[in-house]
Amino acid sequence: MWAGIGRGISVETGKLDSEMETTTADLRRARWAVSRAIDRRLHLVGGRCQQNLPWYHWQPSQGAYNGRNVGDNVNTDLAKAILGRNSSDDSVRVTTDPNQPKLLGVGSVLHFANPGDVVVGAGWNFKVPFDDKYKTILPKVNFVSVRGPVTQRLLAKAGVAVSTNLFGDPALYSNLFLDLNVSRKRPYNLCVVPHARDILNNKAVRFINSHDKILLVPTNLTVYDFVFKLSQCQLVLSSA
To answer: Which residues pair with 8 in a beta bridge?
Structure first.
């Protein structure tokens, strides 16, 4: 679900969000509100954390796209925009080292959190068992927000209290912080966004490419190209 493009479905609640059609003024106000909410929470958990904690970027080491995945790589773009750093050195803003003190944002990366880390919108990876190790670590993590109430309830059942009711993966706010171009026309009936493992299905790829009203959108694009292609379609179907 991308702010400003149209309606979408919340990842965790499954509810149709009809409030996503916004004006430019609405986007400016929303961007200010989100920035202020994050900034105030970061002050409460120990000062201007965004000035000294790098944003964590999980990057797969292998796969069809050799680690290039828009859902993970958008962390780098958002880190530059939200943290407001002026340095041209990406290592100042972003880290791929899970053992380094960090801020965790986009993705199912909560299991990488360590004591003292700051969580802004991250969710739990349900492929990872929630064992006693995390019951010890996560109470020592500073939570600004989590991805949604499903993650919050999981943590609560495990005895980890997350008091904040501020929900949302930071990727949902991409249109507030990034200069994304959106197509004025939607020439395609359908966009198909395959998971990296599905792109290897040659039969399915050939079928998609044989229809001129269906657009195949790989996930190894930049967030800017990815969003523009999605905006060209009337409907999006994704396994990613």
So the answer is: 17
- CA–CA separation, 82 vs 31, rounded Å? 10
Rounded distance, CA 142 to CA 61, Å? Answer: 28
Segment 10-16 long-range contacts (CB within 8 Å, at least 24 positions apart):
10/148, 11/123, 11/147, 11/148, 11/169, 12/123, 12/147, 12/148, 12/149, 12/150, 12/151, 12/167, 13/148, 13/149, 13/150
User: Residue 191 — φ and ψ, nearest 5°?
Assistant: -105, 135
Q: How many CB atoms lie within 10 A of CB 219?
A: 22
Sign of CA dihedral 17, 19, 25, 28: negative
Residue 177 CB coordination number (10 Å) = 18
Sequential pLDDT tens for the chain (240 residues): 233 333 333 334 434 333 334 456 665 666 666 666 555 555 444 444 444 688 898 877 665 566 678 888 888 888 877 776 545 555 557 888 999 999 998 889 999 999 989 898 899 998 899 888 888 899 888 888 888 888 998 888 778 877 667 788 888 878 878 888 888 899 999 999 988 777 777 787 888 888 889 999 988 898 899 999 999 999 999 887
Report residue 89: phi and psi, to 5°: -85, 110
Token pair 């929470």 in the structure block, residue: 41
Structure tokens at 89: 């050195």
| Token code pair at residue 171 | 């990727």
